[in-house]
Design brief:
With 245 residues, this protein is of the alpha+beta class. Strands 1, 2, 3, 4, 9, 10, 11 and 12 form an eight-stranded antiparallel sheet that branches. The chain has a four-stranded antiparallel sheet with strand order 7-6-5-8, with no helix packed on it. A hairpin with a 2-residue loop joins strand 6 and strand 7. The longest helix has 29 residues. The radius of gyration is 35 Å and the shape is elongated.
Length: 245
């Protein structure tokens, strides 16, 4: 009678076959990276995940967005003294300007001597609302009369400070090419284009001096909000609708 195969003998036989084919059945040890290399990878990851976002923010700040503090009351109640505003610096070089835009610009002809404060953020910058584009004729008959652009009266009650007239005195200005006509929302406290018609720029602001369009107020916290350009106010005005560099 043939004896049953012994399990231990079968296991020994399989072990010998594996060994005969040059196969090492023991687990392959894992290769560990040197400690110095691991530390290097950690530093690189830190630079990537922290450095790149900071660089992106800096580039956006320099080339896309501007930040300004507003010390004067010429734009009340749209922008109050002490507000800080965020601007889009791409206008007018990349993004065209439209009537109603709130623009930050360099002092074109020493306007600041007639402003109550020393400009925007302590620099020779001012902030006003764009009313007239190149080619426009902007005029007003004076106290109680609306501003007209190319013969069309515009209703500015949505942004002019309550109780303030569109202009307390008459004026008529033809906006020349490469310039815009600007006014403050607080017309009784804004030394704007109306007051400088005898200066070297005839009261107009050169397009190249405009540094951006105000988008929102971001400080103080209770004043955070989007700034409305009120483009609809000028919807019926004939002529060109936008301008850029």
């Amino acid at each position: 009678m043939q004896a049953s195969p012994n399990p231990d003998d079968e296991r020994d036989l399989r072990t010998m076959v594996v060994a005969d084919h040059g196969v090492d059945p023991s687990p392959v040890p894992r290769h560990k990276a040197p400690a110095r290399q691991t530390a290097g990878m950690g530093l690189r990851d830190t630079l990537i995940w922290c450095g790149i976002p900071v660089l992106v923010i800096l580039l956006l700040r320099v080339f896309v967005f501007g930040m300004y503090a507003i010390p004067s009351g010429s734009m009340e109640n749209t922008i109050m003294p002490g507000d800080r505003v965020l601007t889009l610096s791409l206008a007018p070089k990349v993004v065209d300007l439209r009537r109603g835009d709130i623009v930050v610009f360099k002092d074109p002809a020493n306007w600041l001597r007639n402003e109550q404060n020393n400009g925007v953020f302590g620099k020779d910058r001012l902030i006003k609302r764009l009313i007239g584009l190149p080619g426009d004729v902007v005029e007003c008959a004076g106290e109680g009369s609306p501003v007209t652009i190319n013969g069309v009266a515009v209703d500015e009650s949505s942004y002019i400070r309550e109780g303030v007239s569109p202009s307390s005195f008459p004026f008529r200005v033809e906006v020349t090419e490469g310039h815009v006509f600007v006014m403050g929302d607080n017309r009784s406290n804004s030394a704007d284009s109306r007051y400088h018609q005898d200066d070297e720029e005839n009261g107009l602001v050169p397009l190249e001096d405009i540094e951006g369009v105000a988008l929102a107020t971001y400080w103080p916290l209770q004043r955070i909000g989007v700034l409305d350009a009120h483009h609809d106010v000028f919807a019926d005005v004939p002529g060109r609708q936008s301008v850029g560099l």
